Structures are given as C-alpha cells and as structure tokens.
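hiii, so i know i said id send this last week but things got crazy w the move. better late than never?? heres the sequnce for the chain we talked about at the cafe, plus the structure i predicted for it. fair warning i was half asleep when i ran it
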Amino acid sequence: MRFNHLIVIISMTLFIAACAKKDDSSSSSSSSSSSSSTDSSMVAAMPSNLAVSSNTESGSSVSSRTAGRTSSSEISDDSDPKKHKDKVARLEAVLNSDDINQCHKAIPKKMKGSGGKYVSCYGPELAFVNHPNYSAGQGQDNSTLPTGDLGIWTAYNDNTTQEACSVGQMNLLMDKAGRKVDLAMGITAMMVCAAKNDNLTKPSVDGDALDVTASVAKTQVKEKRGGMEVTSATLKRSTVASTGKIKYTSKLTGSFTYTEGSTTSSQSFKIKFQHVPETDSKDSVKAGEGLVQMWQEGISETDGNCGGTTLDVVTSVAYKNTSDNLSFRAVKAKFPDNMSSDDFFNSSDGEVVGISAQESSTGSGWCADLNIIRANVDKDGFGKVGYAWQAGKMDGYTRTFNIKTVYNSADNQTGNAYFGFNPHPDNSSGTNKYRTTNIDRMICNWAGPGQAQGRTGVAKVQRQQLSYDSTNNVWKSSSDNITFAPTNDCNFDNSSNSSTTFGGSGASITNNLISISDFQTNFGSQPTKPSPTLE
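okay and structure toks below
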C-alpha cells in the first residue's frame, strides 16, 4: 500500500516537473523569438537628444517613467515636457519601449503653443501725452504705443515668484516654436518605435525604402492624439557620398485635429527627417547630425501680412550633437498658401528660407512670423540660446533675446539675459544674414512719433542677471539694466517737457542700459550654426 502511494507521488511529481519544463521552454522560445525578430538598432534612425527648449524653462521636471520600471512598462504622458532633459527623457523612453502601445507618447498632447504673444511685463501698451520727439507731420502727439515694442518693461513676469521678465517671454516664445519641433520629433519617434515593435528590420543600405505605414496604424495615435492619421511613413538608408556614413531618411504624411477653446481645425503635415548617426548602431543615438523639415499646408488662419484666409507654417532644424552637447538652428515662418515646398526651403542647406516675400525678387518667401533659434547647450540644457523673431515681412528688424545660463554647482546656477534689435537682413554674409540671432542696438522709440530715420536706435541693450531659485523652480532676476524712456535717445528730461507723460507719469527717465561692447564681451560669440553633411 505504501509502495503504491509512493508510485503515485513520484508519478505526479514527474508530471508537474514535465509541465513546468514545457511551460519554461515555451516561454523561453517566445522570448527568444521576440528578441531575435525585434531590430533594436532601428533606434539609430533618429537622435534621442534633440530638443528645442528654453534654457530658462521654469517649473519642476515632468516624469516620463516611474523609477524602477523596465522598458516594457507604461510611459507616463500626463503632461507634455518642456525642459530639455525632460523632452530627451520622453524621447528615449519611447524609442527604447518594447510595447507598440507606447509609441505615440512622445507626440505632445497639446499640439499648438498658446498663451498669447507676450507676457504682461514685456512690451505693454503705453499711453503718452506730448511726446518729446513729436513734430508736425510725424505721427500723433497724444496716443498709445502698441503692444510688443517696448521690450522688457518691468523686472518680473511673476511678482510672487519673481521670475524674470526676460525668462517669461523667452519661455513663451520657445514653447510656441519648440512645439512644432516636438511634433516632428514625436511623430518620427512613433514611426521608429512602431517599426521596431512590429518586427520590421532596417532597410538595406542604398536599397528601397521601408514602408512603415501599416505598422504605424497599429499604434494608439489615432485614439490618443487628436485623431492623428499617418497616411504614408517610409524609412530609407543610404550612403553619404562625401563621408561614407549611413544616412537615415524618414518621410511621413498625415493629419490631425486640433481644438483650442471652441474652435476645432484639421491640420495636415509633411515631415522629412534626415539623420546621419556617428556610427550606424543603437549605441550612437546621441551622436550625429541632420536636418528636420516639417510643413503644414492650408491652415485656416488670417494674417494681414500674408493675405487670404489660409496659410502654410514651415519649420526646419539643422543640428549636430554628441552625448554631451547639442548645437542647432531652428527656423519657423508662415508662408502664403499658394507656395510649394520648393519655396519653403533653401536649395543650398535645406533650411527654411530667411528671405521674406517683401525682400525676394520673385515674390516667394515668408510673409509673417519669422522665428530663428540658435543654440549651443549641454545635455541638461545649460548654455547659449539666441531667439530672434519678426512679426511682419516689412519690419526691417528682428526683436532678439540672447540668454546664457551656467551650471556652477547643484545649488548655484546663474545666467544673463539680453534683449535688443537687429537689422534684417544684417551685415553678415550668405544665408546667415537672413537667419541670425545677433543684437546690435536698442530701439526705444519703435512706434512713437518722430522716430529716427531708419530707426537707428542706440548702441545699447537691455540686460537681466539671473539666478535659479530651486525652491520655486524659477529663474529670478538678481540685477536689472532695463530702464529707458520710449524716445529716440532712450532718455526723458521733464525740465524741458513738463507737459509730457508716459503711462500717466511725467517723471524724468535716464536709461541704465548696458553698452553693446559689454554685451558682446559678457555673452561672447553667437551660438555656432551647425552645417550637417547630408550628401
């Protein structure tokens, strides 16, 4: 009897062990199959550390992943990242994910920048009476200066946190331009992630392009990102003739629906992304060079500078990066809707043209909202950023911020922010003269009566010295050189003009702006413009 029981026990033990072995074998086979069919080197198709962000972005960091989770864990996308390192973390999380349901999460939820054109401390509307530069036939003696022309008018963007005005305005500008780049980066990352997780392999070098459209359709992008549909997605590998390196070219076409308040609009897009990694492997996703081009055609929007009720918004980013540093120039502008992609980009370097329709001999060129960003930053986003913008094609000058931030230690980060104007085109050479972020003057009386011929301005700039407040997560102003009168020489003496008032005040104003030479010494050279080798 005992013997029979022993036989039964041994038999059951062997049966259970056999089942376990079978299950383990099955699991191992499945894992091996998945591992062997997933081409992890697909991530070399784009850089994981390219992000267009303000180097003074405020607020606490946005998480993309809970600490300790594996690559198959769900990526947090509760909020869109704004800081450089947060955007990079989100991109890396998506590119490294082994779950196709996570592939859409580098695409921003909010697909268009908002918040108006200016923060309240920058360029406010200002009433004046008996302007001292007024003379008969030169404007109105009593009127109001429009918004956007007075530069940094008060020190703080937020009186509670004491965030510097320059920081608030720079962050607003960078968020609007950066969101277009975020779209291009996120959509391309989705394609790479989908191709990898749908078991596709990289196309052969100099062979046919890989069609990834069906793989992208398996993601959750349509449900989770404004009904976005990608109608065409391809990836090609080719040899750069001059260097022998491998170039990846991603091309995507699609559309999405954007809702702002009670207004909903459908926007189409086209993306061409050329990337040359330093080496063609997954270990080189942070070193390389390339060019991003994105254009959205037929957007329903009225702009008096462009005419009509539809226009095109075009963006490019030329970049070079290493694991520790990133250098880029981003250009964004509006174009009349009757132009084609041949009119959007320079034939020489593929970037958005800097010549306006007003300056062009053929009438082609941008019509409004030119934005130029040049940056040299480290892996955490510290460094130099220049931002120049021009609202209308006939302005003749860009308004420009130059901000330099330095990481001295964990509890000591400092910087300097400068604001002024620059002629457009300036006296640089080649295409750079239309796409620079230099500052060469302050124009204190941009729109008032009797402004100097050619708006010559003065050889000075505004400056705010910055320090980072880690408690409130903001860049504060520690010292200001921003005071000026809205007159041709930036000063006002009430002893000679006792009936003059600016903003209701008749007090004398002596500017405390710094000289151009001090600015050039302290800021140094402009951020270098990368010239990627793509052919």
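btw Confidence is low (pLDDT under 50) at residues 1-36, 66-70. thought thatd interest u
miss u guys!!
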